[in-house]
Amino acid sequence: AQSVTQPDIHITVSEGASLELRCNYSYGATPYLFWYVQSPGQGLQLLLKYFSGDTLVQGIKGFEAEFKRSQSSFNLRKPSVHWSDAAEYFCAVGPILTGGGNKLTFGTGTQLKVEL
Amino acid sequence: NAGVTQTPKFQVLKTGQSMTLQCAQDMNHEYMSWYRQDPGMGLRLIHYSVGAGITDQGEVPNGYNVSRSTTEDFPLRLELAAPSQTSVYFCASSYSGGDSHQPQHFGDGTRLSIL
User: Fold this and answer.
1) Do B42 and A107 touch (CB under 8 A)?
2) pLDDT in tens, B23-70
3) Contacts of A72 (CB under 8 A, 6+ apart)
4) Is A59 on the interface with B (CB under 8 A)?
5) Distance between CA B56 and CA B65 in Å, rounded?
6) Which residues, 6 or more positions from A1, have their beta carbon under 8 angstroms from its beta carbon?
């Protein structure tokens, strides 16, 4: 069964500092990988996704993530955090199969606080 | 476009009551799903549908029923509400039910409390 681990429940960074949110997955092969962001009281918004090709993917709002097969990781990064980035971030994996539906497995989330 | 619309936004029920959470999308997406979000547990898949007339169970289906009579609508029904079903419920939709790399579009959620 697929699983996702986000080891950091809470992270606090200063505005302008760099950010890295960790995500490790367990899956028998290379899955599809996603990062979503959830602002308070809102639904989830897709930041970026990886399913093949270049292991460094760019997303919206200046975020990027790097897929490392050897470490089963898909860490999210941003060079300079803005106060508006404060939110909860979810890593998710989906199976590479057709006809089986879009069955995402989510991590437990990392709550990001940005200090001004 | 409205995207994915969930109603109601908030609801309080008593144990044993029933209710239906509504979800509608206007993007002609084949795939729709329901998740529940609980503190420290992320989102867990309840039920999903790959098209009208087709539904299947996710990770935590017990206590919930779904139907998919049209492409646009995917209601979630609680027949006998229990306090353990207190949660935030999210509906999501995407293109092409067979390819999980298509990003899912989420509604704003329904916050449900069961007393």
Assistant:
1) yes
2) 999 999 988 999 999 988 889 999 999 889 999 999 899 999 999 999
3) A24, A25, A26, A27
4) no
5) 10
6) none
